[in-house]
Write a structure and sequence with these properties.
Main location (chain A): membrane
Oligomer: heterodimer
Radius of gyration of chain A: 21 Å
Shape of chain A: globular
Largest sheet of chain B: 2 strands, antiparallel
Order of helices and strands of chain A: HHEEHHHHHHHHHHHHHHHHHH
Subunit structure (chain A): NDH-1 is composed of 14 different subunits. Subunits NuoA, H, J, K, L, M, N constitute the membrane sector of the complex.
Number of helices of chain B: 20
Number of strands of chain B: 2
Membrane topology (chain A): Multi-pass membrane protein
Family (chain A): Belongs to the complex I subunit 2 family.
Strand order of the largest sheet of chain B: 1-2
Radius of gyration of chain B: 21 Å
Shape of chain B: globular
Strand content of chain A: under 5%
Keywords (chain A): Cell membrane, Membrane, NAD, Quinone, Translocase, Transmembrane, Transmembrane helix, Transport
Helix content of chain A: over 70%
Number of strands of chain A: 2
Largest sheet of chain A: 2 strands, antiparallel
Structural class of chain A: mainly alpha
C-alpha cells in the first residue's frame, strides 16, 4: 500500500518539476525517488495485509512483482533523458506519465477488489495511449495511439462486462468473497462466462494470438521508448495480472467442480501454441526491428501463458520468466535507442556493422537476443528450462515439444540481427557515448546474466 | 586437486586474453592453454594415485541442479585430448594475422572451457549448458574470421547453428523428462532409472538427434563440409578435432546407458547409419577439388566408423571408438594444419592448382606423408589401433558390417594418397614453397610424436579408459 501511495506521490512531484522549471534534474531525482520506492516496497515484502475494506491486498506475489515493475521503470526513466533530448519542454510530462503507469501496474497486481483491478488497468492503459501518440507531429505515432486507444477501450469494455457478470453471479466485487463462494457446488454459469470475458480482455493487453493484431502496428508507430515500455513493462504487468486474476478468483478449482477444467486447459494450450507459432513465423519476415520485437513479444506471451496450466506452483517461474524477458528487452531496446536515434526508421540496415563500430553495444544486443532465444548461460535459457520443467511435470509434453520447435524458429530472426551486426559493413558513423544508455544496457544485461548464474535468487522468492 | 580449477583457468584465460590486447592475445592464450594442460596432467597423476576426482556443489534448489563435475578414466582421456589439442591449435595459428585478435583468441579459450566442461559434467543440465555454450564461440569464429564469400559463409554458419541447436533442444526435453522421473539431473541417479521400452525409444531418439547432427552421422551431415571449408582453419580444427568428439563421447556417456533397451533393439540401424557415413564420405571425398572439403568428407567417413563402433555395445567397440576419437583428433588437426601451411604459401586450396611441392620442401613433405598414412590407419600409427579395434568389434556383430566398414581403409588410402600425389608430387611448381618454419614444425612434430608413440604403445590409454568403459557397459547390461 505504501508503495502505491509513494509512487503516486512521486508522479505528482514530477509534474511539479515542470512548474518549478527544474527539468534538468528530473531524471536523476526520479530515479532516486524510484529507488526509495523500491526500498519501501522491500520493507513490505513478506507481509500480508489488506487496506480500505480489501481494496488493496499486499502479498508476496504483489510485492515481488511490484519490485520487478519498479526496477524496469527505473531503467525506462533513465533512458528518457537521452530520448527526449530534442523535446526538453515535454520531459516532465513523459516521465510523470511513466510513473503513473507504474502506479497502475502496481495496483493491478495488488488488487483486492475487482473495482481496483479495473482502475489499475485503466490507469495503465490511458498512460500507454498517451505515450503511444506522444510524438504528435509524426503521423505514424498518431495512428499508433489512435489504433491502440480504439482497440484498448474495446478490450476494457469487455473486461468491464466480465466484471459485471461476475458481480451478477457472486453478488460481490470483493476478490476474497468471490474466492470463497466460487467453490460452492451450484455456481451460476455467469461466473465462468464473466471470467472468460475478463481473460479475453487481458489476453488483448498481453497481445496473445488471436488478440494480437494491434501489437505490430502500435509497436512500430510508437516512439521507440514507448515501444520499449510496452514490450517490457506493460507486457509483464499484463501477464502477471492475468495470472493473479486466474489464481485469486479460484478459477481452476471452480471449473473443476463443473467439469469445465479440461476445456479451459485446452483453450490455454491452443492460445499458447498459436501465440508462439504465429509470433515467431511473422517475426521471421520483418525488416523493422521494433516490429520484429513486437512479434517476438507475442511469442514470449505464448510461453508465459503456459504458466496458467500449472497455476498452483508456477508463480516463481512466471516471475523468473518475466524478469529474464524484461531485462533482455530493456538491454536490447537501449541499444536500439542508441542506434536508431535521429533515424527515421528502425530497419535492420541501421545495425549493419555495429560489431565493428561499437563492439560493446553490439555484444550487449547479441547477449540480450541470445537470452531471448534461450541460449545458456543467459537467464532466458533458465526461464524456458523452468517453464518446460513445470509443464512436463503437469503432463503437457506435446506442448513443450511445440515450444521447443518454436525456440528453434526464433533463433532464425534473432540471428538475422546478430548477423547484420557482425557480417555486414558499417554504413554510418555514430558519435557520442550517452552515459545513461550505456549504463542501462550494461546494468540490465549484467542483471540478466546474474539471474542466469544464480536463478534461485528470484525463483525462490515465490516458492 | 580440484577439478574445477581447469575450467576456472580456461575461463579466466579467456577474459585475460581479451583484455591483453591484440598484440599479446595469442601468447597469453597459449600460456593459459598450456597451464590448463599442465593441470590436466597433474590431475591424471592424482587419478593414478587412486583419488576420486569429482566436485559437487549445489547450484539451483528447485529444480535441483548441481554444479557437479566428475572425471573417470574416459573423462580424463577426453580432458587430456582437449587440453593437448588446444595449445597445438593456438600455436598453429601463430603464422596468421587476425583482425581483432583479442576477440579471436578469447573465443578459442572460451570454447575450450565449454568443451572441457562438457566432458567433465556429471549433472545432466550442467552438461547441457556446457554443450550449448560451446556452440556460441565457434559460431562467431566461423562467421567473423572465416574465409570465402561473406554471403555463402553466413548461410553455412547459420545453417550449422540452427541445425545443432535444434538437435540439442530435443535433448533438453529428454533431460527434463528424465528429471521428472528421477527427481535429479545427476548422472548416477539417471543411470538408476528403469524406463519402459517406449520411453527409452523416445529418449534415445531425442539424444540421437542432438548427437547425429553434432558428430555428424548421415543424413544429418549436410552442414559439415561447408562449415569446415568456410571456417578459419583454427575453427575447423576445433570443430573436427574436439567438438565432434563431444557428440561421440556423449553417445557413450549419456545416450547408451540412459536408453539401453532401445540401443539394443535398434542397434543394427544405427550401426548401418554409421557405416553408410563411412562409404558415403569416402566416395564423396574422391570427387572433391578443395583440399579442406576433401578432409571434411574424410573426417565424415572416419567418425561414421567411430559412431558405428560405439553402437556395437561391446567393450571392444567402446575402446576402439575412444582410441580412434583421440587418434582422429590429433590426425585431423595435423591434416588441416598442413592444408593451412599450403594456403599460407600459395593462397589456394584448389587441389588442381597445387602440385610439385615435394622437391622444394622435403621436411614438409615427409611430415605431411606421415599424417596422410596415419589417417589411412597404417599399422604402427595410433589410428591403426583404433580402427582395427572398431572393425574387430563390428565383425563380432555381423561380419558384413566389418567388411563394409573396412572399405574406409581401402577407399581412404585411395583418396588420401591420390590427394597427396596431386598436391605434393609431380613437376616442380613454378611458385616457390618455403619449407616449414620452426613454429610450424613444432606443431607437426608434436602431433606426429603422439600418433607414433601411441601407435606402438597404446597401453597407457587403454588402461586409462577401460575400467570406466566397463562400468558404463555394466549399466547398459544391467537389465
Amino acid at each position: 500500500m505504501n508503495t502505491l501511495i509513494a509512487i503516486t506521490g512521486l508522479g505528482i512531484f514530477c509534474l511539479l518539476f515542470e512548474i518549478l522549471n527544474l527539468r534538468k534534474a528530473i531524471v536523476p531525482i526520479t530515479i532516486l525517488g524510484l529507488l526509495g520506492v523500491l526500498a519501501i516496497n522491500y520493507y513490505e515484502f513478506g507481509s500480508t495485509a489488506s487496506y480500505y475494506n480489501n481494496m488493496i491486498t499486499v502479498s508476496k506475489f504483489s510485492t515481488t512483482f511490484s519490485s520487478l515493475f519498479i526496477i524496469i521503470t527505473i531503467f525506462l526513466v533513465a533512458l528518457s533523458h537521452n530520448f527526449y533530448e530534442n523535446h526538453p519542454t515535454k520531459i516532465s510530462d513523459f516521465v510523470a506519465i511513466k510513473i503513473f503507469l507504474l502506479a497502475g501496474g502496481v495496483a493491478m497486481v495488488s488488487f483486492g477488489n475487482l473495482a481496483m483491478f479495473f482502475l489499475g488497468i485503466e490507469i495503465l492503459s490511458i498512460a500507454l495511449y498517451i505515450l503511444a501518440a506522444s510524438e504528435r507531429l509524426n503521423l505514424k505515432s498518431n495512428e499508433a495511439g489512435m489504433k491502440y486507444f480504439l482497440m484498448g477501450s474495446f478490450a476494457s469494455g469487455i473486461i468491464l462486462f466480465g466484471i459485471c457478470l461476475i458481480y451478477g453471479a457472486m453478488g460481490s466485487f470483493d476478490v476474497a468473497e468471490i474466492h470463497e463462494s466460487s467453490l460452492s457446488a451450484e455456481l451460476p454459469i455467469w461466473f465462468p462466462i464473466g471470467m472468460i470475458l475478463m481473460i479475453i480482455g487481458m489476453l488483448f493487453k498481453v497481445a496473445a494470438v488471436p488478440f494480437h493484431f494491434w501489437a505490430p502496428d502500435v509497436y512500430e508507430g510508437s516512439p521507440a521508448l514507448t515501444t520499449a515500455l510496452m514490450s517490457t513493462l506493460a507486457k509483464v504487468v499484463a501477464i502477471a495480472t492475468l495470472y493473479k486474476l486466474v489464481s485469486a478468483l479460484n478459477l481452476v478449482p471452480s471449473l473443476d467442480n463443473q467439469d469445465l477444467l479440461g476445456t479451459f486447459e485446452n483453450i490455454i494450450v491452443i492460445i499458447s501454441i498459436a501465440s508462439m507459432t504465429v509470433g515467431n513465423i511473422m517475426a521471421l519476415r520483418q525488416v523493422n526491428v521494433k516490429r520484429m520485437l513486437a512479434f517476438s513479444g507475442i511469442s514470449h506471451a505464448g510461453f508465459m501463458l503456459m504458466t496458467l496450466l500449472t497455476i498452483a506452483t508456477s508463480a516463481g517461474v512466471l516471475l523468473y520468466y518475466a524478469a529474464a524477458y524484461a531485462l533482455a528487452g530493456i538491454a536490447a531496446f537501449s541499444v536500439i535507442l542508441y542506434v536508431c536515434k535521429n533515424q527515421d526508421n528502425e530497419d535492420i540496415t541501421n545495425f549493419h556493422g555495429l560489431g565493428k563500430t561499437n563492439p560493446l553495444l553490439a555484444a550487449i544486443l547479441t547477449a540480450s537476443l541470445l537470452s531471448m532465444a534461450g541460449i545458456p548461460i543467459f537467464s532466458g535459457f533458465f526461464a524456458k528450462l523452468f517453464l518446460f520443467n513445470q509443464t512436463i511435470q503437469a503432463g503437457y509434453i506435446a506442448l513443450v515439444i511445440v515450444a521447443v520447435i518454436n525456440s528453434i524458429i526464433s533463433v532464425g530472426y534473432y540471428f538475422k540481427l546478430i548477423l547484420a551486426m557482425y557480417s555486414k559493413e558499417p554504413n554510418q558513423e555514430r558519435t557520442g557515448k550517452p552515459f545513461l544508455i550505456y549504463a542501462v544496457a550494461v546494468i540490465s544485461i549484467t542483471l540478466n546474466i546474474v539471474l542466469g548464474l544464480f536463478p534461485s535468487l528470484v525463483l525462490d522468492l515465490l516458492n | 586437486m580440484n577439478v574445477s580449477l581447469i575450467l576456472i583457468i580456461l575461463l579466466i584465460g579467456a577474459f585475460v586474453t581479451y583484455f591483453a590486447g591484440d598484440k599479446l592475445a595469442s601468447k597469453v592464450a597459449l600460456f593459459f592453454s598450456l597451464v590448463a594442460l599442465g593441470c590436466s596432467i597433474v590431475l591424471l597423476n592424482h587419478f593414478y594415485a587412486g583419488e576420486s576426482i569429482s566436485f559437487v556443489s549445489a547450484w539451483i534448489n528447485q529444480p535441483k541442479i548441481s554444479f557437479a563435475l566428475n572425471a573417470d578414466g574416459l573423462g580424463i582421456a577426453m580432458l587430456l585430448l582437449t587440453a593437448a589439442l588446444t595449445p597445438i591449435i593456438i600455436f598453429s595459428s601463430f603464422g596468421n594475422e587476425y583482425k581483432n585478435a583479442k576477440g579471436f583468441y578469447a573465443l578459442i579459450l572460451f570454447m575450450a572451457f565449454a568443451m572441457t566442461g562438457t566432458f567433465l559434467a556429471a549433472d545432466g543440465l550442467l552438461y547441457y549448458i556446457f554443450w550449448e555454450l560451446a556452440l556460441i564461440p565457434i559460431y562467431f569464429i566461423a562467421l567473423i574470421w572465416g574465409n570465402g564469400d561473406a554471403e555463402e559463409r553466413r548461410k553455412a554458419v547459420v545453417k550449422f547453428f540452427i541445425y545443432t541447436l535444434a538437435g540439442s533442444l530435443f535433448m533438453l526435453v529428454a533431460f527434463i523428462y528424465l528429471y521428472t522421473k528421477a527427481g535429479s539431473f545427476m548422472i548416477e541417479d539417471l543411470y538408476k532409472l528403469n524406463l519402459s521400452a517406449s520411453e527409452q525409444l523416445w529418449i534415445f531418439l531425442a539424444f540421437f538427434f542432438a548427437y547425429a547432427i553434432k558428430i555428424p552421422i548421415i543424413p544429418f551431415h549436410t552442414w559439415q563440409a561447408n562449415v569446415y571449408q568456410k571456417a578459419p582453419t583454427v575453427g575447423t580444427m576445433l570443430l573436427s578435432g574436439i567438438m565432434l568428439k563431444m557428440g561421440l563421447y556423449s553417445v557413450i556417456r549419456w545416450q547408451l546407458p540412459l536408453a539401453p533397451l532401445a540401443a539394443k533393439e535398434y542397434m543394427n540401424i544405427f550401426i548401418a547409419l554409421g557405416i553408410a557415413g563411412v562409404i558415403y564420405g569416402s566416395i564423396v571425398a574422391l570427387r572433391q577439388k578443395d583440399l579442406k572439403k576433401l578432409l571434411a568428407y574424410s573426417s565424415l567417413a572416419h567418425v561414421g566408423l567411430i559412431a558405428a563402433g560405439t553402437y556395437t555395445l561391446t567393450i571392444d567397440g567402446f575402446r576402439g571408438a575412444v582410441l580412434q576419437m583421440i587418434a582422429h583428433g590429433f590426425v585431423v588437426v595435423g591434416l588441416f594444419f598442413a592444408a593451412e601451411v599450403i594456403y599460407r604459401r600459395y593462397e589456394t586450396r584448389e587441389i588442381s592448382q597445387l602440385g610439385g611441392i615435394r622437391t622444394q620442401s622435403p621436411k614438409f613433405t615427409s611430415m605431411f606423408l606421415i599424417l596422410v598414412l596415419a589417417s589411412v590407419a597404417l599399422p604402427s600409427t595410433f589410428n591403426f589401433v583404433g580402427e582395427f579395434t572398431v572393425l574387430y568389434s563390428l565383425s563380432q556383430i555381423n561380419i558384413w558390417f566389418a567388411v563394409l566398414g573396412g572399405t574406409t581403409i581401402i577407399l581412404g588410402a585411395y583418396y588420401m594418397l591420390k590427394m597427396f600425389q596431386n598436391v605434393m608430387l609431380g613437376e616442380t611448381n613454378s611458385k616457390t614453397f618455403a619449407d616449414v618454419s620452426i613454429n610450424e614444425g613444432v606443431s607437426f612434430v608434436v602431433i606426429i610424436a603422439v600418433l607414433i608413440f601411441f601407435g606402438f604403445y597404446p597401453k597407457p590409454i587403454t588402461d586409462l579408459i577401460t575400467p570406466s568403459l566397463e562400468t558404463i557397459l555394466n549399466v547398459i547390461n544391467k537389465n
